[in-house]
Amino acid sequence: MKFMMIIKANEDSEAGVMPSEKLLLAMGKYNEQLVKSGVLLAADGLRASSKGARINFANGKSTVVDGPFAETKELIAGYWIIQVKSKAEAIEWARRVPFDVEGQIEVRQLFEAADFEPELRGSAEGRALLDAEQSFRKRTNT
Amino acid sequence: MREMAAETKELIAGIAMVNLDSMTDAVSRAKKFLALVGEGESEIRLIHDGAAF
């Protein structure tokens, strides 16, 4: 099962303040543990929302709003994607994420290609899409 | 204590990681994706690269 562990933003991450050396080193050790355990598929830190944008689409029209976005606690500062045997195992990894003082990790299960098979196996177009998805996952090791 | 995460509009339904030359390109691709989906919101965020640390 694949899970995304999402680390929420805070005032510092939104202000573009880099984590302390102590926290970066702790994060590095944590990531090493994920790698050694063979569960880590991907991980990234996000720059402040001021470097990003939101695109809304409704009634056939899109609007673009440049960052920063105000609701700091709902913003994402980074993520890990892990492959584990259960939600409980994902939560255990999330509990071990190092923080300076406080923080929040959201754990979400990812869809996998097999989840879409019942809807897509019935047509040639659907099967081709599943094959393309499988090929992409193999190529990108995701 | 376990609770439901209730703020549906702020929750994430999916991600796509892409390597592009510009924010303009990212916005353009997000618009195309949303046009396919019909309606919704996409947030584009720049990823730290190793040099940032």
Topology:
The complex is a heterodimer of chains A (142) and B (53).
Chain A: E1 2-8, H1 11-15, H2 21-36, E2 40-45, E3 53-58, E4 61-66, E5 76-83, H3 87-95, E6 105-109, H4 113-120, H5 124-140
Antiparallel strand pairs in A: 1-5, 1-6, 2-5, 3-4
Helix pairs in contact in A: 4-5
Chain B: H1 23-37, E1 40-44
Report the mean per-residue pLDDT of chain B as an integer: 85
> Rough shape of chain A?
flat
CATH architecture of the largest domain in chain A: 2-Layer Sandwich
The domain tally of chain A reads 2
Q: Helices and strands of chain B: which structural class? A: alpha+beta
> What is the radius of gyration of chain B computed over CA atoms, rounded to a whole number of angstroms?
15 Å
Question: Spans of chain A with pLDDT under 50 lasting ≥5 residues?
Answer: none
Total helices of chain A: the number is: 5
Low-confidence stretches of chain B: none
Mean pLDDT of chain A: 92
Keywords:
heterodimer, A: 142 residues, alpha+beta, Alpha-Beta Plaits, 2 domains, four-stranded antiparallel sheet, two-stranded antiparallel ribbon, 5 helices, 39% helix, flat
Explain what the structure shows.
The complex is a heterodimer of chains A (142) and B (53). In chain A, α4 (113-120) runs antiparallel to α5. Chain A folds into two domains: 2-110, Alpha-Beta Plaits, CATH 3.30.70.1060; 112-142, no CATH class. The radius of gyration of chain A is 18 Å and the shape is flat. Chain A has five helices and six strands. The model of chain A has no long low-confidence stretch (mean pLDDT 92). Chain A is α+β, with helices and mostly antiparallel strands and 142 residues long. In chain A, a hairpin with a 2-residue loop joins β3 and β4. Chain A starts with a strand and ends with a helix. Chain B has 53 residues and is an alpha+beta fold. Chain B is built from one helix and one strand. The model of chain B has no long low-confidence stretch (mean pLDDT 85). The A-B interface holds A 4, 6, 18, 24, 42, 44-47, 49, 51-60, 62, 64, 69, 71, 74, 76, 79, 106, 108, 111 and B 5, 7, 10, 12, 14-15, 17, 23, 26-27, 30-31, 34-35, 37-48, 52-53. β3 of chain A pairs antiparallel with β1 of chain B, so a sheet runs across the interface.
